[in-house]
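Write out the bound-state structure for zinc ion.
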Amino acid sequence: MGEKVDELRESLGVVADLHAAAGVLHWDQQTYMPPGGAGGRAMQLATLSQLAHERFVSDEMDALLEEAESKVADLDPDSDDARLIRKARRDFDKARKVPPEWVGEFTRITALAHQVWEKARAEADFPQFQPHLEKIVQLRRQYVDFFAPYDHVYDPLLDDFEPGMKTTEVKAVFDELRTEQIELVQAIAERGTPVDDSVVHRRFDEQKQWGFGMEVAKAIGYDFQRGRQDKSVHPFTVGFGTGDVRITTRFDPNFLNTALFGTMHETGHAMYEQGIDPAFDRTPLAEGASLGVHESQSRLWENLVGRSRAFWVAFYPRLQETFPGQLGDTDLETFYRAINKVECSLIRVEADEATYNLHVMLRFELEIALMQDTLAVGDLPEAWNTKSEEFLGIVPSDDAQGVLQDVHWSGGMIGYFPTYALGNLIAAQLWAKIEEDIADIERQIERGEFGELLSWLREHIHRHGAKFEPMELLKDITGTGLTAQPYLRYLRGKFGEIYDL
Ligand code: ZN
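---
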């Protein structure tokens, strides 16, 4: 048995190496590559992705999987080997449905589209990006057809990011969220004690922001021996094995939250990947259980920890020391309220916890319309603005503030956005369990101690990587599947207190 699995592991390892090499090129593209590199880089990425895909869906791989599967009955179904074989088979069956030519074309088109999107966003000029997005939507429709028959045209896309989740399930949970979240946001606007957040809009030196962010990332447990931080237009985390997991961030000299909470967010992602069992390196188990679970880790550190009063009991004195001119006159309570101000705003990544999911639901509905061909790409900016008015009560002044703000569509990532909202829900479900298991968690955070929290996450989530399916993992930890109630309870409790509702 061992030998067969070793052979399979070795072949999967080659595929993983090719993906990791492409990952390094992607990272470089978004951090240091000069604009002139765009054309060449698109070809390099296309070649690597196509090679990885061909190696993965080869007949040899199929044979190795079959041989390993024939022995799997002797294994504990929850053993690492049995789970590795199961996960590899699932990925294989999906990948085999997609022709290598499609993969090469998709990679080339999206690498170019990324460059165009950056420019179009900077110039708030959607028509520049439109033909690229049209091509991407067309390719994604082709992709979905590889998986016919399906219940919903969006299902095959969602499944790539959230294995096993169905569009109807997401719709059901979003319906439950939407009404209550809109009610809460309205109650805050109409009856809440106003919050003044001018303090976070003062001028903050970029180098000092960088230093403070690094200090926080280290304190909460990001291992810089196996990671680093750089700047990029859109913050992201990328890992090339558990020994090298990098984050990026961006800075706004006139808004403290951007880099501060962005860094905590990406650090949450990075600590997840650093915490995966190193024995899973170079296998399909060396990734998060799903993007929703991944996002639960980033949102947990960004919000449940980073936007809590307890966290700032520990860190506010240090932040004041870093920015005496900007924060010297502001007490902890005023600062805590400022970083938690609820306000319908245009930019998703900077949205507060109470409005964030509304941004996600807007994109979810538009993506479904694009895939169902009930919305043309050319009509997307107008549809975006209409939905923005409906969900958030505001309309972007230009497309950079609206339809062009996110990187995802330029990368062909349709079906990704719902995982952000799922991450919020999962984070709240996990936090309820953490509060049961670590009775003095709040006191620990006030003392700036995060070891026990990180160990809990390592034990229950991180180390397993993609060994378990997301809902299996969640049920195992919390005893229930996905539910919106802990998140809604958390929102009502926190913002009810801040806004005196
Ligand atoms: Zn994230």
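---
The first strand starts at residue 229 and ends at 231.
Residues 265, 269, 295, 298 surround zinc ion (CB under 6 Å).
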